[in-house]
Automatic annotation (TrEMBL):
<feature type="compositionally biased region" description="Basic and acidic residues">
    <location>
        <begin position="262"/>
        <end position="280"/>
    </location>
</feature>
<feature type="compositionally biased region" description="Low complexity">
    <location>
        <begin position="295"/>
        <end position="315"/>
    </location>
</feature>
<dbReference type="Pfam" id="PF04085">
    <property type="entry name" value="MreC"/>
</dbReference>
<dbReference type="InterPro" id="IPR042175">
    <property type="entry name" value="Cell/Rod_MreC_2"/>
</dbReference>
<comment type="function">
    <text>Involved in formation and maintenance of cell shape.</text>
</comment>
<feature type="coiled-coil region">
    <location>
        <begin position="51"/>
        <end position="85"/>
    </location>
</feature>
<keyword id="KW-0175">Coiled coil</keyword>
<feature type="region of interest" description="Disordered">
    <location>
        <begin position="262"/>
        <end position="315"/>
    </location>
</feature>
<protein>
    <recommendedName>
        <fullName>Cell shape-determining protein MreC</fullName>
    </recommendedName>
</protein>
<dbReference type="InterPro" id="IPR007221">
    <property type="entry name" value="MreC"/>
</dbReference>
<dbReference type="InterPro" id="IPR055342">
    <property type="entry name" value="MreC_beta-barrel_core"/>
</dbReference>
<keyword id="KW-0133">Cell shape</keyword>
<dbReference type="GO" id="GO:0008360">
    <property type="term" value="P:regulation of cell shape"/>
</dbReference>
<dbReference type="InterPro" id="IPR042177">
    <property type="entry name" value="Cell/Rod_1"/>
</dbReference>
<comment type="similarity">
    <text>Belongs to the MreC family.</text>
</comment>
<feature type="domain" description="Rod shape-determining protein MreC beta-barrel core">
    <location>
        <begin position="112"/>
        <end position="257"/>
    </location>
</feature>
<dbReference type="GO" id="GO:0005886">
    <property type="term" value="C:plasma membrane"/>
</dbReference>
Amino acid sequence: MRLLVLAVLSTALMVVDARLDVLKPMRSQMGLVLTPFYWVADLPVRVWDGITEQFNSRSELLAENEKLKAEALLMQRRLQKLAALTEQNVRLRELLNSAALVDEKVLVSELIGVDPNPFTHRIIIDKGSRDGVFLGQPVLDARGLMGQVVEVMPYSSRVLLLTDTTHSIPVQVNRNGLRAIASGTGNPERLELRHVADTADIKEGDLLVSSGLGQRFPSGYPVATVKEVIHDSGQPFAIVRAVPTAALNRSRYMLLVFSDPRTPEQRASDSAEAQARADQEQAAEAPASTPPAEAPQEAPAAPSGTPAASQGADQ
């Protein structure tokens, strides 16, 4: 019965409110009172949405950060490769320029290994007997002589550097032609000149070049620069230390020199003779363009008894 009464009352209120808007002020007041409750009831949902959004944003930021790190790493690798290629290009250009200054035939080689023995200064290059490399062949880089080939294999060779303790090379002071022997010390940054008289004209900064004596190294190539000259009044010889001009510890590309033992004058003379022989051979092989002209034949003299002869005599 109560339920029926409440239902009828509710229906009546709905009809009255719909037609006369009698309950509108009351409804507004109830909405104002209930608004905080709605906000509190919706708070957990909004907090959860905010937390979820924060986590999603953080995950996206982390993923984007990792992607950017990977891209930056790739760019750094490319920059490093570009820098390495740039340096390699510079070294090859230097080597090309030095090869242009060398009169002899040269072959470019690349460093592929270093002798593991710490008491020797030897390197391994990528050219061997199949490339024409031979024992004792001089090796130089863009700055000067490095050493000589001491072991030849089919596809590689072993090079003994100037600074090895077993290596010596005849040199001369470029300024005045003073001759000496530069020997290795086991220090990649130092050579020593042996048996230089204490009164010899040699000083710091002098350039030492190969003298060509011994016919092993071609003459005129830079070997070292004098760094220190020590004079001892009680000793007959001065102590002379020099720094190699070649980058023995840094050069990756080098030149193998196929030396010509002839002097420049001999090479010029041989070249002129070869050209003269070639010209002679060419002239001998060329066919004659026109046959040689025949000399005119004189008429045979008439006998003295003939009328023609008598007539000529009368004239």
